[in-house]
Write a structure and sequence with these properties.
Length: about 210
């Protein structure tokens, strides 16, 4: 076993990769330990259960994603351009993942929600908190766009939920068909959901 200081990180790294590839239910502690190169004793030294480990993985993944969303959605760019950049970076991330491993990985939070939300209350609550936070971040941008007269929605919260749901749904389709072209309509769909002028900003083109 490596140093105690890096055993925990090896477990987390292995678990994050395996959860993304295989999901929660089919994944066992033994496989996580084998992938991480640590004995089971090390696992239970740091984590009392697979569920406890999954919660830490979720939290670390959200910390990284939240930082990206803050960078994009709280920038000085006009509000609709910020939303467009969020979709562009989401598509770029999924394409990069497909290029590196051959498959579209989808969204860890969406994948776990579909698999586990009715089985593990602790995971369901954490995932709900994350999606609520995403909606709140998008709503702030939608409210700015509304104040500028760029969108015509009457309920910014419902509109933000629709935008996040659309984003998650398109990512799910990209994963299902292993085809990132399902992410191409994200921006046009967002403009339609927000009642925005389709010519307000140009359609994004990714390289």
């Amino acid at each position: 076993m490596g140093r105690t200081s890096d055993a925990r990180e090896k477990i987390l790294e292995a678990a994050a990769s395996l959860l993304e590839q295989r999901g929660y239910s089919a994944l066992g502690v033994a496989e996580i330990c084998k992938t991480a190169g640590v004995p089971k004793g090390s696992f239970y030294y740091f984590f009392e259960s697979k569920e406890a480990l999954a919660l830490v993985v979720i939290d670390e993944h959200w910390a990284a994603q939240r930082s990206d969303w803050i960078r994009i959605l709280e920038s000085d760019a006009p509000p609709l351009l910020r939303l467009r950049q969020l979709f562009e970076e989401t598509e770029a991330t999924q394409r990069s993942g497909q290029n590196s491993c051959g498959t579209v990985s989808g969204c860890l939070f969406g994948n776990l929600t579909l698999e586990m939300s009715n089985h593990t209350e602790a995971l369901r609550e954490r995932l709900q908190q994350i999606f609520d936070a995403e909606v709140e971040m998008v709503e702030a941008v939608v409210a700015e766009a509304l104040a500028l007269g760029q969108v015509t929605v009457s309920d910014t919260h419902s509109a933000a939920r629709s935008v996040v749901a659309q984003l998650e749904g398109q990512v799910m389709f990209a994963k299902l068909y292993n085809n990132t072209s399902h992410l191409t309509p994200l921006w046009a769909n967002c403009l339609a959901l927000l009642g925005a002028d389709p010519t307000a900003t140009s359609t994004p083109t990714l390289v």
